[in-house]
Amino acid sequence: MSWLFVLLQQLKQFVVPLLVLVFLGRGDRNQLWSLIAVGGFVVVALWRYLTFRYRITADSVVIDSGLLERSRRQVPFSRIHNVAIHQSLLHRLFGVAEVRLESAGGDKPEAQMRVLQLDDAIALEALVRRRGAAAPAPAVAEATAPDDKAEGRVLLALPPAEVLRLGLISNRGMIVVGGAAVAFSQLNPQLPDDVSDRWSHGLEAFFGNLHFSYGQYALAILAALLGFAVLLRVFSVALALLQYWGFRLEEHGRRLTVERGLLTRLRTSAPRRRIQSWTLRESVLHRWFGRRTLDIDSAVAENGNQRRGLRELAPIATAAACDALVRNLLPGAAWPPERWQPLHPRAWWRLSLPGAVVALVLAAALCWRLGAWGLAALAWLPWAVFVARQHARRAGYAIDDRLVAARSGWWSRRWRFAELDKLQALELRQSPLDRSLGMATLWLDTAGAASGPLRLRYLPLAQAQALRARLGREVARRPLRW
């Protein structure tokens, strides 16, 4: 039934033109052309099925494919960075899966097998895991021994209660609302304007007949906002259940494997050595629930906005569990650091400048429109200074012979760190304002960092220069591990 999945993939790309042709076309001729188009897709799907083959050699996966132009692609196991196994609901009904073999630096999968038996897909993942860092064995049978399918060591498993907490903490409900708005706008570009006009006229007529006082209007608006917030949380919980149900992080030797999903099951794995940087995040809601999130950047290129590599090690976990996970995957590393180095003494002034500029511009605009009442916008200045002081007080950096780390944030907090062996380039940056204040920012690049470079911000200039020199010597004498 492999051809069926190829057919559905093709129809998914042309479903809108076909529906327009069937339902909006006139006469039997359009329906005949639609049937001919579907028949053509069936022929192409069957042809692809008949011309696609893959085989396992001692050290590679070899794939033969192509309709008119035939190609043979050989992917060595040692070059495969990530093995992603995808199961939609239809895949699970047939007991099959889609497998993508990805390498570091590629903008698309090195190989993609749309339909494999699930046992074959897991066996291929185990084969890559065993042979990726080892010399080729004399026989393929040895590499696919029964112990390849042995369960790995579970590092983190999320029970349903934790997935519910993840839904309450995250703002994934906005993804559902935004996706629905985009879909409706694509179907009818005038729909957003029509809906907004109808809602505005309807609300105006509804509230006009009620004759509320100002206090009652305020309560009604507050209740509407509260209802919308509750609806967003419901969407967020539902999406978290769909995406993270049954989340398991396992360690198979030198590889990490993540499996998750309620209807669509995703299974992806990558070598531990490919991890380039680590990020711990903690929002206000995280702190209320006593939880954090642990993400990684790995040495795999991004395909547009789609993150194909292993990304989330702990979507939600306690602070102690996140720290223990880091220490387990970075043996010998001191995490969390015992001492954090502070920023420049005037860093708070540098951080408060954007808020101050916004307040001054807003006050000027309001004064032009409202007169002296516009000066009320200057009340934002004390708050901007207070927030900047809190950010500067909590921010800092730490460095030892293994890790370099930076922390930032006050309302929402963030810790980012990387091994010295993963650093590729160092850059010292100064804006004109930084030069006048005697401070600088050190940018540390790693391979494939989707979150951008690691930044040590607003350090005293002499300290930043000394740190760049020290890290430069360390990076020059250490071999790059990625």
Short synopsis of the structure:
By secondary structure, the protein is of the alpha+beta class. The protein is built from 16 helices and 19 strands.
What can you see in these coordinates?
The chain is α+β, with helices and mostly antiparallel strands and 482 residues long. Among the domains are: 2-51; 173-243, no CATH class; 330-343 and 395-482, Roll (PH-domain like); 350-382. Helix content is 46%, strand content 25%. It is built from 16 helices and 19 strands. It has helices at residues 2-13, 15-23, 28-51, 89-94, 118-131, 140-143, 160-169, 173-187, 191-210, 214-244, 284-289, 319-329, 347-370, 380-394, 432-437, 461-477; strands at 53-56, 60-65, 71-76, 82-87, 96-102, 111-117, 153-157, 248-252, 255-260, 265-271, 275-282, 292-298, 312-317, 396-399, 403-408, 413-419, 423-429, 439-446, 454-460. The strands form 4 sheets. A 7-stranded antiparallel beta sheet has the order 6-5-4-10-9-8-7, sandwiched between helices. Strands 13-12-11-16-15-14 form a 6-stranded antiparallel beta sheet. Strand 14 and strand 15 form a beta hairpin. Helix 1 crosses helix 3 and helix 8 (173-187) crosses helix 10. The longest helix is centred in the middle third of the chain and has 31 residues, at 214-244. The protein starts with a helix and ends in a 5-residue tail after the last helix. The relative contact order is 0.08. Residues 135-149 and 301-307 have low confidence and may be disordered.
